[in-house]
Amino acid sequence: MKIVSLTYNELVKQFKKPSIKIIFALILITAMVLPMFIKKMPVDRYSNSALESNKFLVEQANQMMEQSKEDKTQKGKMSYQYAMIEKEYWQLYVDYKIGFDDWRRIEAENFRDAAYDLAAIEFVLEGYNQEVVIENLQSASTDEVSAYYEMTLAKKKEVETALISQKEKIKSIITNNDYMAHTEEELKRKQGFIDLNKKTIEDYEKLKAKNPKDEEGKEKLAQLEKQAKSAESSIKNFEEDKKIIEFRLKNKIDYDLNNWKNNSINTIEKEIQELRINLMTETEYSSIATQQGYSMTYDDYVKNYNEKKEQRINKINEVWYGLENNIPALNDIRDARSVLDGTYEIYMILAVIMVIIIGGGIVASEFSQGTIRLLLIRPVSRWKVLLSKLLAVLIIGFSIVILGIGILYISTGAVFGFETYKTPLLQTINGSITRVEYIKYLLPKIVISSSSLVFISSLVLTISTLSKNTALAVAISTVLYLGIAPVTDLLVGMKQTWIVKTLLPYINASYFRLVPFTEQALSERFGILMQYNQGAIQLIIVSVVLLIISFVVFMKKDIKN
Questions:
Q1: Whole-angstrom Cα distance, residue 440 to residue 413?
Q2: Which GO terms describe its molecular function (predicted)?
């Protein structure tokens, strides 16, 4: 009971300080308002930047028009027409506020291509010299344009009419924001690519059946064989793309970044694109590694490639399962789960900083103020006195974590809906997709992150006990906790990956979870994954050692003041 009483007295002493009350209150208030702030943040945060960039490009196109306006040669007129196309193209972006991550970008690109093709047939109809047109041609196919010169006037007019119709149709999709029409067009385009590749295979099969004996025929057959093999792979890829587009079309899924189903489809498409990157040969990898500064061996690269491949396949299967069963993936939706998962580490960091502030002076201040003798003349063992101070520090730290995350849980649920907490997470366990309750997913992560809090509490108490200097305890602990992240980034950038095998990066594991760029660099460049569980164990072991040192020194130290 003595320990409980001493701990209580220590807590009362700390909370009598106005600064501690204010800091504690501010931390808890942020947990209340943070979800509201996040909800007001636009999903497309770069829309204004995109608009300004597009306005600049419109002005640039205007300048190009002015520069070529006075040139009445055929080349000059072509330049003027191309500048007009560029202006019209970028004006679409400005008028309809097409952002960086907007499906209408695809249609805008198709609009520009159609405009360039239309300009080419118009040059031919206006009697421009073939050599001048071919030499200054932009975007359009030279073979197609050469063929235009062989067509009859009626056929040329037919091509022109078709391109005008195509251009207007594409513009209509953009102006009407008709995402369904866009999806249908994308489906047709994929089918067109499939048909084109099938024709390549058919041409190869026909020539193969003829079994040419002459050198020219053999050379063409060999060339077609390579193209046919590539076509087979392309058809498989386009069929995968078609499946995704058909699912979007069937379920009428728009391209809104606030729509989790759209985000899930984007995730699948991204992971599939990554899967299509082939494993490099040792020679290819050696060349790339030299250029990019990768230091992992080829065997490590192969191992890393296969592990990532398995992870991506699992991810794709999980997201597909979620789409088919109406279970949004955590990273594809802004709901209570994702907001809490992306912000709870903030309160772990704030708790550690508070522990440093309090723990730095909890023992040292007793020596500097001369109250340590009064404290120790009580009929209480020294170890109980120090233990009560340690418990007070830990209680304050964990109070911030528990109350901060607890209030954040409630405020996030109130803002985004408590029912979203009921949505399970999907994980692949032993080859099967398993539904995991969100709270069961979150709690272990919080426990692992708490190892940093225990370590810093032990460290600051040890320094405070050994040095009897508050400033030194606070300074060393703060520099170590806040400085280890940039130091780790710097060392990883210098290929010094040994640091990841130590406990140092895990002292502030919360930073690396909030800002995962270092993790990504380690994985991509060196094939190394951060082991948070192992790091937490190391921190706890070192914490125990530090506390043993603190207690031994404190119990044997002579008190002179």
A1: 17
A2: ABC-type transporter activity
